[in-house]
Please model this.
Amino acid sequence: MAAEESFDVYRLPEEHEAIREAVREVCAAKVAPNAAEADETGEFPKASYDALRAADFHAPHIPVEYGGAGADALATAIVIEEVARACAASSLIPAVNKLGTMPLLLAGSEELKRRYLTPVAAGDAMFSYCLSEPEAGSDAASMTTRAVRDGDHWVLNGVKRWITNAGVSEFYTVFASTDPSARSRGISAFVVEKSDAGVSFGAPEKKLGIKGSPTREVYLDNVRIPADRMIGAEGTGFATAMRTLDHTRVTIAAQAIGIAQGALDYARGYVRERKQFGRAVAEFQGIQFMVADMGMKLEAARQLTYAAAGKSERGDADLTYFGAAAKCFASDAAMEITTDAVQLLGGYGYTRDYPVERMMRDAKITQIYEGTNQVQRIVMARQLLRD
Model:
């Protein structure tokens, strides 16, 4: 096989490259200009949401039968990657819409899908995912939020913490215990609406990064919802939550490589222009080695992420391993790359006048949410060591 042909193995299909170009164009014109302000003010970037919605990039994964674009897992990852390259907080619009709706796609009734996926596809609502609690983070099976059956309704009580886009989203996938004695097998999933009586939100968290994406607690105080809003059968919620994360960890990996790409792009331009000792900084071997390592790690993360996206689309048996591996590797790489980008800019990199310090702060969360990277390593080890 000729060298030229061998590289074709890694070339994306034309339709995926076209999606990348389209998202990049929208982001350059209408998302990137809002990134610094969203970070500075901590306000949801409504203009960026409107731009993504107008281009149908706000929830591209929703199937066409529910009014969505029907993007496959790789195309969705590319959308998130390109938005994150411009603004990490804005990339949580398509990412969390997928996270919130994935339980419905995996286990919801047809009626439930049509009722809730259609307005999300139209851009009339966003969807958030409520799994974590104040005392149940990595140990999600220890949740204390309860759902008690009352005739044709369920009554929910509890607190959910670290909920991305809480207060902005209209709909929430809420996991609650319907049988505390059964631990994980007693957890069920429900759709809760922002307008339901008894739903309220805490103050926005004061975060290190992704400041334009609100993170709040969600309070459920005797929230009474119809029984048909249960997602799947009673007691299957925890399994649905874990299956969801297998798919959506790929989107966090995509977000991480997008942030890293944005930092590398900026740093490359800077070291080519910045002069010290009479020549461009990029001409110094120490700088070249840093840039080479950044590019190498980024491309390795990208290839692993795209491979995991393919497994997500096909529903491969080893998705659990690959989703965890992609998320873990890409987020660790993003943290290293953005930190090096700050280093390459020197003192300027440490100021808010330049975007790389924001990118470094934004990258950190990718090592934490949807399962810390320590948890990802446990997941990978279990997959590798099982019979």
